[in-house]
Design goal:
Layout: H1 6-12, H2 21-26, H3 28-35, H4 38-48, H5 78-85, E1 93-97, E2 103-105, H6 107-112, E3 115-123, E4 129-137, H7 139-146, E5 154-163, E6 166-173, H8 174-177, E7 182-185, E8 187-188, E9 191-192, E10 202-205, E11 217-223, H9 236-241
Parallel strand pairs: 1-11
Antiparallel strand pairs: 1-2, 3-4, 4-8, 5-6, 5-11, 7-10, 8-9
């Protein structure tokens, strides 16, 4: 069992080493500590952990006084600035790929779907954790509405923020996509998401580390393989900085 807890203990307890996602990306020693032996870790963890188990949920009085922003704090593109200026009334989350019924969901659509509210802890590779309340429809319910095709194996998220001139992207498999705590969050602590925290909508995949929680969502696509996504490892950090694709905790 001790093999399964080393990463969370390291991340939460090592703020001096891990000052931010970009700093971790540049620090080869930090990467080696975090991700050395990840293939073995992932295999053991996925074999022994109950991936349907719920992440711990907390009481309202246990929420952190501040929920920091991680990664991008404002996409800053002309397109995003226009959407933000209109309070995201014209924003649409496009759901496509291997689905029978492609969707274009406005914020009002997300709010009118059956929503889930949960108070959970965010564990970031930057070396900090925070507890907050998130609200939004489950990703599984959105995928069911779109009619997921049998060939689909992964869900890919494309975002409004740019890294190296290209949209940020992440992915999860169907086990995490249909986990009851995996939601498309549009509210943080009973208020609309602030820009720094991913407005107008971000992924919450509560059984994984913070870099998997894609912000500024623009597209959700069902795919059969990750081979054609970026460099084929399933996400920006996975492709460019050797982060592990499965970041389960």
């Amino acid at each position: 069992m001790s093999l399964l807890i080393s990463r969370r203990s390291l991340i939460v307890g090592a703020p001096a080493l891990l000052a931010g996602c970009d700093q971790v990306a540049r620090n080869s020693a930090a990467r080696a500590i975090l991700f050395k032996g990840e293939d073995m870790h992932r295999g053991i963890q996925r074999a022994l952990m109950d991936r349907d188990a719920l992440a711990r949920e907390f009481r309202p009085d246990q929420r952190s006084p501040i929920f920091r922003s991680n990664g991008t704090r404002d996409p800053g593109t002309p397109e995003y600035e226009t959407l933000a200026a209109g309070k995201f009334a014209d924003w649409r989350l496009n759901v496509g790929g291997l689905v029978a019924r492609p969707l274009a969901l406005a914020l009002t659509d997300l709010a009118h779907l059956p929503n889930r509210a949960q108070i959970t802890r965010h564990d970031c590779v930057e070396g900090w954790s925070a507890i907050a309340k998130w609200q939004g429809p489950t990703l599984g319910s959105v995928l069911k509405a779109a009619g997921l095709r049998d060939a689909a194996r992964y869900i890919v998220f494309t975002c409004a923020d740019l890294y190296g001139g290209r949209p940020y992207y992440e992915s999860i498999d169907l086990i995490d996509a249909f986990h009851p705590q995996t939601i498309l969050a549009w509210a943080l602590n009973d208020r609309m998401l602030p820009i720094a925290n991913g407005a107008p909508c971000r992924l919450r995949v509560e059984r994984q580390l913070g870099y998997k929680h894609a912000k500024y969502l623009m597209r959700v696509d069902a795919v059969a393989s990750l081979a054609g996504i970026g460099k084929g490892h399933g996400g920006y950090w996975e492709d460019n900085v050797d982060y592990d694709w499965y970041a389960g905790i």
